[in-house]
Amino acid sequence: MAFNKIWCTVALGLLLPFSYAHTDFFTSIGHMTDLINTEKDLVVSLKDYIKAEESKLEQIKKWAEKLDQLTDTATKDPEGFLGHPVNAFKLMKRLNTEWGELESLVLKDMSDGFISNMTIQRQFFPNDEDQTGAAKALLRLQDTYNLDTDTLSRGNLPGVKHKSFLTAEDCFELGKIAYTEADYYHTELWMEQALKQLDEGEVSSADKVYILDYLSYAVYQQGDLSKAMMLTKRLLELDPEHQRANGNMKYFEYIMAKEKEANKSSTDSEDQMEKETEVKKKDYLPERRKYEMLCRGEGLKMTPRRQKRLFCRYYDGNRNPRYILGPVKQEDEWDKPRIVRFLDIISDEEIETVKELAKPRLSRATVHDPETGKLTTAHYRVSKSAWLSGYESPVVSRINTRIQDLTGLDVSTAEELQVANYGVGGQYEPHFDFGRKDEPDAFKELGTGNRIATWLFYMSDVSAGGATVFPEVGASVWPKKGTAVFWYNLFPSGEGDYSTRHAACPVLVGNKWVSNKWLHERGQEFRRPCTLSELE
Ligand code: OGA
Ligand code: FE2
Description:
Elements: H1 2-15, H2 29-76, H3 78-82, H4 85-107, H5 112-122, H6 128-144, H7 149-153, H8 168-180, H9 184-199, H10 208-221, H11 225-238, H12 243-264, H13 268-295, H14 304-307, E1 312-315, H15 321-324, E2 328-334, E3 339-343, H16 348-358, E4 363-364, E5 367-368, E6 375-376, E7 381-382, E8 384-388, H17 394-407, E9 417-422, E10 427-431, E11 451-458, E12 464-465, E13 468-470, E14 475-477, E15 484-488, E16 502-504, E17 507-509, E18 512-520
Antiparallel strand pairs: 1-2, 2-3, 3-15, 4-8, 5-6, 7-10, 8-9, 9-18, 10-16, 11-15, 11-18, 12-17, 13-14, 13-16
Helix pairs in contact: 2-5, 8-9, 9-10, 10-11, 11-12
This protein binds N-oxalylglycine and fe (ii) ion (FE2).
């Protein structure tokens, strides 16, 4: 993962000016707010269209009523009616010109304005990939935060301002997306939820037969044959002629019979194999499980003895003239690796400036695919980022100086300030910021050595989720607007500190802005002298 990480950064820095690919809306809130405005615009022009259509219909109605009366009178006494010369003239006129005019009015297309607005806006619409991405984000959140399907569907999330719920059709859609990913676990959950909502009487165009079709298949794929049969039976009650369901039913019965037969003569070696795969699965889980637990705030607590050694203090940057009179608040977040947090270290105005500078340049963070050698997007890094140089704004330059003053490290060899925005579901799974021994070329092009330390500003609060967690040691750092955390990635010996492995948890509610500075080894020779052993 670190390999990818490094490449993403190096390569992003180099390629950013040339990459204007699709914007991947679902990865950040920044671009999604534009869509809200687009939609507002479209509603306005839709309403204009409705007004125009209504006034057209009004004119047609009036005409119809007038003609209704007229023809009533005329048909009662046609000869008497036509005996009046004006009536005769008017009949000619109506039929020769007025009905034609009415025909034109009926045919008149009032939708021009709306349709052309749609055509223009459509080029900025999200595509299938965005819809799938947003759906997958929901599924990811469900797993990380142990949300049950019903809670998610009813929109009962912590800290939400605008409650929103999923319809049976939405649930069906989510199930289908899980299905196309061969993710039968979530297919089952969401198809079941769709069915439940329909059973509870929700009015919907979602079709129980379709839902049962997917559901029984997902259940079968996960090995629950008898439940798959029960669901197929239910489907057949609704649609006895359903071909696939009838076929499946026969097949399930056949498999059931065969399994019964096989169970009688099952051997020990099969049990053994099953156990081994179970062990393998468990072996794979720990980091993921720890990561998710930390994200939920269920991390192990430090012993009180250890906790007592964490302090907060006023810090003057080691008697830095800029901070002697106005020291900053510093708090120990963790002891090993040492993670400190600076409070009130970036102002709201500075944050706004940084966000505004970054917004037009935000693009989906990419990683280097070792197989194809190309830059690609990855599910484990879902965010948008941009790089800001100290030259382009006094605010950025001031921020860089602040980092230098407070870390005592030279920022001239650091990478530019990276600004990242995570939308709902946005995350960065466990990784190292430093380049490891097996990837010596990671930062070669930069010529400034490895990433000695990381400085991370939190530029927003996050309503729920979005912690920075360190699964190796069990630390969770919660985002708090205006603060920053700092840690060393390398020991003074230059060795990578593997306990700094960390992740950005998926945002559950709200949106997360951070910016970070990766400081490099060059330039720190006298500021942080190296040692021979990592323990010094
Ligand atoms: C990173 C990173 C953590 C966070 O961008 O390398 O680890 O909380 N970010 O955003
Ligand atoms: Fe990181």
